Structures are given as C-alpha cells and as structure tokens.
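Data deposition worksheet. Section B asks for the primary sequence of the deposited chain exactly as it was used as input, without tags or linkers unless they were present during the calculation. Section C holds the resulting structure in token form. Section D is free text for depositor observations; keep each observation to a single sentence. Incomplete worksheets are returned to the depositor.
Section A, Depositor: J.P.
Section B:
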Amino acid sequence: MTPDARSVLDLLAQGKVTADEAERLLAALERPAPEAGPVGAQPPPRRYRYLRVVVDSDEEGRRGGKVNVRVPMQLLRAGVRFSSLMPERTRDEINAAIRRQGVDFDINQLRPENLEALIDQIGELSVDVASDRAKVRVFCE
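Section C:
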C-alpha cells in the first residue's frame, strides 16, 4: 500500500472524509499521471469505471426514497462477451422481447470489438431530472 493510500484510509478512520470520498480519492491515486504531450494534443479519453443512477424522492407526507445504483463498466464488458456466446435463437428471442417494449435494438450488433466505442459514448452521458417530488441523476464516473 502506498503512503498516499494509507493517508486516505487514515482520514476515513478519523471521520474526516466519507467512504464515498475515500473511494474517489483512492481511485484517483490509481490513475497514472498524465504525460506531457505536444501543445494542443488531445488528452486520452477518460476510462469510466461506473454507470451511476441516483434518485432522491421527497413525496409530501411520506418518507423520501433514495436510490443509489453503481454499475461497474466491467459488468457491461462481460455482458457483451457473454452475449456473443449465446445461441442465435436466444439472441433472436431477446431482440423480439426488446422490440415488444418499443425499442428498436439488435443485440447481434453488440460485439466486443466495438464495445469500447460504446462505453466512450456512454461516458459522455449525463442526465439530470428535477421535479417537485424527485431528483434523478444518471452519469458515469
């Protein structure tokens, strides 16, 4: 364990940071420092680790509900690899079920070789919805 990681854990133990804050700090420590490149060069795309869905509901007269879901991107990668192993008949049944829900999507088009481009696009996703009763956020981190 690095001294920096030990310091973050000490801050957590002392109650100076929350578990979520400590997790973000530790994740930041794991990322390699960016290398200096030519002036004007594009930085490499950020590698997102999680897709997050956060819902805060505050209905009048009732206790508010909270949802905080964090889906690892690695799960998405594994799911795509798994879908390529499914028999064609099973994929056809999944496509039919998705179409019945009104979504025009073909699971056969998900391939491991184009998955990273999909994840890069999902990484740009950011949805914030606020109403009188609830606040919903969907984002990648």
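Section D:
The chain has two domains: 1-32, 47-141.
The beta strands are 50-57, 66-72, 126-130, 134-140.
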